[in-house]
From TrEMBL, chains A, B, C, D:
The lineage of its organism: Bacteria, Pseudomonadati, Pseudomonadota, Betaproteobacteria, Burkholderiales. This reaction introduces a second double bond into the aromatic ring system. It comes from Rhodoferax lacus. This is Chorismate synthase. The gene is aroC. It is an enzyme of class 4 (lyase). GO terms for cellular component: cytosol. Its cofactor is FMNH2.
């Protein structure tokens, strides 16, 4: 109830602080019998890892994951899977006057007000570092969904600051440090270099997508598939907006164009983003999220200290000038966790799905 | 787990179908000792009620609420509050060929695939009529929060179709059928009249806001205040996008402008929309949602029937040409339910809040 | 979280007070497609109904159940099933000085201390009348389990006061007002008549059993099948003890006799009561519960009033001299709800069970 | 939902297997600001530790606990507290033919049927070793409750096999290996020595008690204090029965004697065991549990192998001949976790308790 467990039937309990001895999670509810090793998880962790380009934080963490339980002779047993990631490159001294002041736009202030105490080292619990265990848990969900339904999760950056990024192909995403679906990222690199020199930070827009999602996932009133996706995405650090399918563009659409026609060969379009009435249509899930600029910047900002007096705060240390850059694998993982949870929920009430009608296509 | 309960500590379990004998909800967790009568709830129900202008569905429902339990001698006792609303104006015959076909953009298709059976009368469980019990439950939460903290919830329409609506004053909202914060709604009326004649529907954009929200509400990792707001809003029928504070505009912002400065007199701005690190800052909560066009329109659309054969579907009966028009009180109610739940969660772990620092202002 | 919902995946939310306008429940998570009518539910309600013999309360309630939602054309749709039972024979005047005093052994005192307010009419929320909606919900679970697995739930009284009741046959249970598995209940009738004349009350011991329970139900650590049964049974009004299988007798047993041998033809005995390591063995679930004497008696008892002053309390009105008499159908219903919930939980994580080994027999 | 998390607001997620690299838990919901170190937890772990007398398993585990998160500068921060205990003395070879057979009375069979795969090393997940993290979590709860309300948890053995143990004083409990409240344990030692020589095992009966428990804890219908205690206790390995207060003895009591009179000086007796209507009275919580004989014994037993063929099974390796001996600190911990969870639940709905009446006494 204190908000550190994600999911209901595939439930991931996250623990740790940015500069504590270790971070990790416990996955409860994983179906038994799936082959699983650390290597299956490490791949996605490496995609999210800091220090991999000059555009992200230079903190050097191998983020090597260890499976502590729930796997026997290389297969999941149905019991909790505990995953542990040691913190190895904490430098708590970098945090200068943050201990006594509050960064504008940062959780410093609210944690202090909520708990009356906060671990300020590296942002403590509010650090984006805590997304690493979710990426690890997401890798387990992805593997099961892939084997079972062929479900695939993909993400890419579609805008950085005020620079929109066109879509050329998913194939380009792994080949540049931005997760951009284009071949030429020179403009993005220049933009980021200038930003870093200016001691400033910027926002980003990310698209995440899932294909081969079973029809019929999601609950009727509150735990709608799209509601749970919105919850998952808005819970990622720095996210300020979430869209499904046509999103905010649907405001200006007419009913005659927005509603996706059904044909015997499948849906003719995907304004719905793969969800109708909160339940998956079987089309691709299409999600877009807005990420705000990093609050930890070296440009001095007006603030107050913990006694309430005015001061200025400057954040030294190692930070991402655009947290959106590393957000793609995180958003994919969260989407996978939502889909996984809903597959198990669906099985509980309705048994294994038997689809009675063909329609699906469009958008893949 | 089947998604019909909203909230954790102030938990609202919703039941009913559009054309069944009754709809309602059970509120579990309401603090004891609060004065409560049907009249306290009816006011908000009346704001959401159908049939109040020519721009909404002409179904005539008094939506009179009855308290079945949880109140003794005019005060809440701490036990479940069951609220019942009789359905009185069902006309199930209006639904022509919907019984055997699927409306493009509607939950018809997904319910059928999920359950293998669906109640098609008036949209059954997927009808927006099921938001009525939430408005009722929200009224209970609003009352408690108002008495305890002076919290106020307000909403207004900010765009209908492609017509943006400026903001003049909250005072105008109750005086026009659109919940528009302006005095002159002639253009909106013309727009809606033309749309209705064209047999089409349109989307809308709604803003919801809460003031006098305690600082420190929300959980650190997953049940963040903004994540839960996104979940609540995306769960409202037809919503396709949610923003908190600067929302999607934050993508193009710089860290130097986005982060709200703290001063001894309070925050200097509210790009955060009242939430930092998932925890309320004490500033106004600011939320914006996108609502898609109604899928039930009289213009013929391509679809398939339940045997998978191509057909055309025309929706007769009484429908809202813009479901967004009645969405304002619904969005307010859902926001109130989120805040209420988080107040109780906060009390559980941290006890009653004692704020140690003054900052709050800006935006009220 | 306020304890009015039973179960997780087959979740029953109960509401109402003894003398309010109505009581009822909402079942969330029922699988779709099952035939269901009020008649399916009424049978069990009639078994629990007051006023059916001189040995139970003379309150005359038809306990007629109405299905408000979740059923379309005689089949469950997968959406919430709301069940309503009107209260028709409240006589709130009977409660004399209970309004201002606390009955020894009754929840009067604790409700007052917890909430600072209580509905004293008929015991309010603490009345055993609130088990009626559970019996109704249990009937839905029983029906589904019967159709799916042939599961049967049976209960009987095994002791009343200090009079033990032998076991002759399940067949006798419906033919006497005690749910006793014997033909001759004259001694029980005499015992109860004497007790009533003495203005006193007594306890009872009840056995509940389930056969044709699937193997493999229950979770490994906390939501063990036996833990959830203990929770369900101890939650029934007036229950003070719960045993599974050999129960307290197992304290004096040796490992060589207690552990049930496995043979190719099945288990050789059932000391386990159908549960090993918290997971069902497929043998009969065997449960025994202790029910304390009713606290509402006409013999004067020492107590205090709500100002803390000494007083005497006498309970007039209509009460069961032995609440255990009507407990049998309640205990059966609660056991059915536990099994049902675990079937759905099992399906979620492990899919539909494929048993790989024959052993089961013994004890049926 | 897979049953590895205990509690709702003070939620403990347990992970690990008997012979895996480590076991542990994550506590979510601990109030912030409490001083906490490993030493606070180690004391109770040492009481439960194996290898401390000849009457328990000779597995030699230091059970040294490490705090991985949730504590900053010696104080809890309100974020998850992860506790890790390394397994150091696994000897997986000891398990002979257990890999392919099922011990009578053991979870071997049910785990295999449920999951289709099981970790047989040391009982895997079904090992009583997994109670260690609960003892650790219970120590955190105990500390908070002690500081806040002066609540104390105590337990003792009241019967071993067919040998009843009288009650002399709580003071004797720490001074013998049986947690017996007597000075002379020679008879118990002889009994256990004979049992071990016979290659057999026996059951035990344990009493647990809590004093200075706040009045008003527990929920009205399902999460009653006694129901949650029954759930917690029946979830401990090998427990087959649970009693609250007078327990099964209440069956033969009359209402005139069972109901505890209230006087201005407090309750006159405690048949209720500290709970009325599911809500704590403020008197001592009194609980008694039955523990069955260990199923792992060296005497050959009839069983089947995983192909369903008849065989005999002999359990070599290191086992407790009476698991009840080490159960006392476990039962205390589970009781503490139940009380802690209910304190937080009570605060959520009702705020901090203000007791309005004096009665409490009796039984301390």
């Amino acid at each position: 109830m204190s908000g550190n467990t994600f999911g209901h039937l595939f439930a991931v309990t996250n623990f740790g602080e940015s500069h504590g001895p270790a971070i990790g999670c416990v996955i409860d509810g994983c179906p038994p019998g799936m082959e699983l090793s650390e290597a299956d998880i490490q791949t996605d962790l490496d995609r999210r890892r800091p220090g991999t380009s000059r555009h992200v934080t230079q903190r050097n963490e191998p983020d090597a994951v260890q499976i502590l339980s729930g796997v026997y002779q290389g297969r999941t047993t149905g019991t909790p899977i505990a995953l542990l990631i040691q913190n190895t490159d904490q430098r708590s001294k970098d945090y200068g006057n943050i201990l006594e002041t509050f960064r504008p736009g940062h959780a410093d202030y609210t944690y202090f007000q909520k708990y009356g105490i906060r671990d300020p080292r590296g942002g403590g619990r509010s650090s984006a570092r805590l997304t690493a265990p979710m990426v690890a848990a997401g890798a387990v969900a992805k593997k099961w969904l892939k084997e079972r339904f062929g479900t695939e999760f993909r993400g890419c950056m579609t805008q950085v600051g005020d620079v929109p990024i066109g879509f050329e192909s998913w194939d380009h995403v792994p080949h540049n440090p931005f997760f951009a679906p284009v071949t030429d990222v020179a403009a993005l690199e220049d933009y980021m270099d200038a930003l870093r020199k200016a001691g400033d930070s910027c926002g980003a827009r990310i698209r995440v997508s899932a294909s081969n999602v079973p029809v019929g996932l999601g609950e009727p009133l509150f735990d709608k598939m799209d509601a749970d996706i919105a919850y998952a995405m808005m819970g990622i650090n720095a996210v300020k907006g979430v869209e499904i399918g046509a999103g905010f563009a649907s405001v200006a659409q007419r009913g005659t164009t927005h509603g996706d026609s059904l044909t015997p060969a499948g849906f003719a379009s995907n304004n719905a983003g793969g969800v109708l009435g909160g339940i998956s249509t079987g089309q691709d899930l299409e999600v877009s999220i807005a990420i705000k600029p990093t609050s930890s910047i070296i440009t001095p900002r007006d603030s107050i200290d913990s006694a309430g007096n005015p001061t200025q705060v400057v954040t030294k240390g190692r930070h991402d000038p655009c947290v959106g850059i590393r957000a793609t694998p995180i958003a994919e993982a969260m989407l996978a966790l939502v889909v996984m949870d809903h597959v198990l929920r669906h099985r509980a009430q309705c048994g294994d799905v038997v689809h009675t009608l063909p329609p699906i296509p469009a958008s893949r």
